Amino acid sequence: MKSGAWVLLCFSLLVCAHPTAANQAESGTNFQDGAWLQEGVNWTRAPKDINPQLESGGAEVLYIEKYLIFAAIYCTVLREHRANMAISHGDPQTVYLGLWDSDKISVRHRLVSRTVRLKGEELPGPFQHAIIKVSKGILIFDDKRFHRVPSLDESAAEVVRANARIADPGMIM
To answer: What are the DSSP E strand ranges found in 25-162?
Structure first.
């Protein structure tokens, strides 16, 4: 079995066997799963001859799945008509993957991918631990505020899936 398939199998087994996440998903008591965009993104308009409705901005996107998967993605977000958003696949990304604990909303994650690696940097990086605070529909992570953006769900999930294939199987243990 290739290592990417092994990681996906481990993710599947882990999330299906976790009763707390399943119970919270059924009861609806957890915060919304999906993509969360950092507040305060500085948007830059594309030239009018390319697309007058297109804007881009460097941002952090949190992605949380109800079955414990957590990602922090540092990337360029594209926005059209001030509503439809997607993570740019043609710009650099830094991706942290890990798991979240639904009881405490704590996360355990590590750097798994960086488009431009730093000299001497080893991937995956060491585990980091953090607490996500939830207040009035806003997530607070690493002293930054995030709001829910459903239009980012698909592209954030693609980034997570792509990086889960290259991540070390020990990442989730």
So the answer is: 34-38, 44-45, 54-64, 69-80, 84-87, 94-101, 106-114, 128-131, 133-135, 138-141, 144-148
Helical ranges in 75-140 per DSSP H: none
Residue range of the domain that includes 161 = 3-172
User: Within the chain, how many helices (H) and strands (E) appear?
Assistant: 3, 11
Q: Which residue has the tokens 């957590």?
A: 70
User: What gap in Å lies between CA 161 and CA 47, rounded to an integer?
Assistant: 32
CB 91 within 8 A of CB 78: no
Among residues 75, 95, 90, 93, the alpha carbon closest in space to that of 149 is found at 75
Query: In angstroms, rounded to a whole number, what is the distance separating the alpha carbons of residues 114 and 73?
Result: 10
In angstroms, rounded to a whole number, what is the distance separating the alpha carbons of residues 43 and 82? Answer: 10
The token duo for 30 is 């957890």
Q: Give the total number of structural domains in the chain.
A: 1
| 120: phi then psi, degrees, rounded to nearest 5 | 80, 0
Nearest to 163 by CA among 57, 70, 58, 34: 70
Find, among 71, 70, 69, 72, the residue nearest to 60 by Cα.
72
pLDDT, tens digit, 9 for 90 and up, residues 82-140 = 789 999 999 999 999 998 876 667 888 999 999 888 898 888 899 999 999 888 889 99
